[in-house]
Amino acid sequence: MLEIKNLRASLEEEGKEILKGLTLTVEAGKVHAIMGPNGSGKSTLSYVLAGRGGYEVTDGGATLEGRDILAMEPEERAAAGLFLAFQYPVEIPGVGNMTFLRTAVNAQRRTRGEEEMDAATFLKEVRARAKELKIDAEMLKRPVNMGFSGGEKKRNEILQMAMLEPRVCILDETDSGLDVDAMKLVADGVNAMRSPDRGFLVITHYQRLLDHIVPDVVHIMVDGRIIKTGGPELALEVEKNGYADLIEEAA
Amino acid sequence: MALPQAKQTATEERLAGLNLPAAPGWTRPAREAALARVQAMGMPGRRDEYWRFTNPADFISAVPVPATHHARQKVPVFDGMDRVRLVFVDGVFDPAASDDPALAGVEITRLAEAQDQDIHWAAELYGALEARGQSPVARPLAALNTAFATDGVLIRATGRAEKPVNLIYQHESETSDAILHHVIKVEAGADLTILENGPAAARFNKVMEVDIAEGGAFHHVRVQGRDHDRRAATHIFARLGRESMFKSFTMTANGALTRNECVIELAGDDGVAHVAGACLGDGADFHHDDTVFVTHDAERCESRQVFKKVLRNGATGVFQGKILVRPGAQKTDGYQISQSLLLDEDSQFLVKPELEIYADDVACSHGSTSGAIDETALFYLRSRGVPRSEAVDLMVLSFIAEAVEEIESDQIRDEIVERLSRWLARHRR
Ligand SMILES: Nc1ncnc2c1ncn2[C@@H]1O[C@H](COP(=O)(O)OP(=O)(O)OP(=O)(O)O)[C@@H](O)[C@H]1O
Ligand SMILES: [Mg+2]
């Protein structure tokens, strides 16, 4: 579903290479987890896939259901089914959460040639999903992420994901900053969306999240590459021993 | 003191084409005094401290630069509101196109018909607040207005007005040169809302004097738009009594040249004055200037100035804003923010923020910024599938939100946002 082949990317300004030949395939219906030390390039990978400016892809590529996503604008990637839950969701004063979500849902539908969602249906949908994530109606009225706590912002990312119904979801440290209950809510939200035609790429530092969102495959990323791929037991190993042994083993 | 030669000549040229009304009635002394002020101050020039950023030439030329009037909007702004419409066409009141003024539940008299009527309160106010506002900064265009205004309205509210009064300025003639002067008195505890819209004339000089007595409230929302060529110099002179409130918001889009001055005097304790503006400028032929002067002359008053300008394709925005805190005006809470969002490198924002404080127990802050669109936020919106152009529009609305939020009425605020959105959609590249 999401195929990343030998992807190399550098910072546009400094020319520093961050992704150094990364290969990874997320199949439909599967949850892949990426773990790796700080600065190994996990967020960079998610940004390059989502189309953020400031990076230059120097080699390799990435396709979503066979389509070359790297050639697309960020909004086209979203409409093609890619979703990134940000490590640091952005605050946007003056733009209501609901306005934003509705604009996004309908823009994607338009791009795909589908009919727009009418206001009443939209409202019903948002309310239902927000309730599942224990996001209160007051929060929905506020500007995008304004005055949200760290955990609320992460839940809001999951709400957006639920409304946009993407094909491939990349979650960048969605668990960081969450208390135990919030983590459970977020995991339930993600699990509810698991389906045979949707893939997940979950970036995390902690095994704990993976107790709730049980991955099919775990990758270890170090210095811009995947150095080891295995099952859920790999996450346990990292939790216990850290990365040192794995790095040595790969060297 | 004699005027410099260039100023003298400019003033004579401007005055040559103007006549005091034949029968000014009770306005005579005020008009004559204003004319004397004009002659003493002279017309504004580029060297004057508050005209460095804006060229006054088109305001003082003997005849206006012609301006083509654009077809009127199908649905005029404020149309969904229950309001009393008073229509001026090229600066002349048009009773046939207007609603019955009596419906507003306030006293309304047309200036052009008032001279023979015995309107004490107006006789005391006409030109008086303008004259007070001439110091410490000269505002000759306002004095010119007091002397030569041909029409306007005198409004006195003694209680809560039943409906907002909507002054609608239509523009028909390509060479119209309108001078309107309104005088508004909000009596103790009264509450009045004035709405203004329309381009008015090829050249428009307007003064609004607003006197708010103890506990009174005055709301003002103005939309300046449509005509690309029109030139407007407007002044608001407001004086606030004890525990009174003044709130003014202006949205400007289009128009070749706009200078909006707002001179506010907090004269009684515990007054609140907010003045805000949002402007959208597109093109090198757009020049928009907000010049604000707030004087705190009483204790525990609050003032806020919130001005946002979105500029592109070579548009120019100017903000000159001052907070003056007089001796004894303790516990003053003064705030001023002026910001521009520059959508390209050709546009410019010129600012002159000033604080002058002569009391020791005050909290005053001011800030001014100029910046481009926040790329991180833009990417966030696009990553959710919002196309770039729509995402930019959302960022623009986000940028001006703080100014728009100064509008108290939800209905009006929603309508303004709606219109801004449509303006943005029309101006997408
Ligand atoms: N815009 C940028 N400017 C400068 N350096 C950058 C930029 N973006 C990323 N980097 C650098 O690239 C490297 C990878 O960063 P990235 O954020 O992708 O790491 P990460 O694996 O997500 O780390 P963490 O686990 O701490 O979130 C780091 O060394 C970081 O400093
Ligand atoms: Mg990261």
Summarize the structure.
The complex is a heterodimer of chains A (251) and B (429). Chain A is of the alpha/beta class and 251 residues long.
Largest interface: A-B, 32 and 25 residues
Helicity of chain B, in percent? 10-25%
Strand element count of chain B = 19
Strand order of the largest sheet of chain A: 6-9-10-3-11-12
CATH topology of chain A: Rossmann fold
Kindly, what is the distance between the CA atoms of the first and last residues of chain B, rounded to a whole number of angstroms?
Answer: 53 Å
CATH class bucket of chain A: Alpha Beta
Largest sheet properties of chain A: 6 strands, mixed
Give an overview of the whole structure.
The complex is a heterodimer of chains A (251) and B (429). Chain A is α/β, with parallel strands linked by helices. Chain A has ten helices and twelve strands. Chain A has helices at residues 42-50, 74-80, 97-111, 119-132, 137-141, 150-164, 180-193, 207-212, 233-241, 244-250; strands spanning 2-11, 17-26, 31-35, 55-64, 67-68, 82-85, 92-96, 143-144, 168-172, 199-203, 217-222, 225-230. The model of chain A has no long low-confidence stretch (mean pLDDT 91). Chain B has nine helices and 19 strands. In chain B, α8 (388-404) runs antiparallel to α9. Chain B is globular. The model of chain B has no long low-confidence stretch (mean pLDDT 94). Chain A binds chain B through residues 50-53, 73-75, 77-79, 83-84, 86, 89-95, 99-101, 103-105, 107-108, 111, 143, 160, 164, and chain B through 375-377, 379-388, 390-391, 394-395, 397-402, 404-405. The complex binds adenosine-5'-triphosphate and magnesium ion. Adenosine-5'-triphosphate is lined by residues 11, 18, 36, 38-44, 54, 87 of chain A. Chain A: This is Fe-S cluster assembly ATP-binding protein. Chain A: GO terms for molecular function: ATP binding; ATP hydrolysis activity. Chain A: Residues 2-248 form the ABC transporter domain.
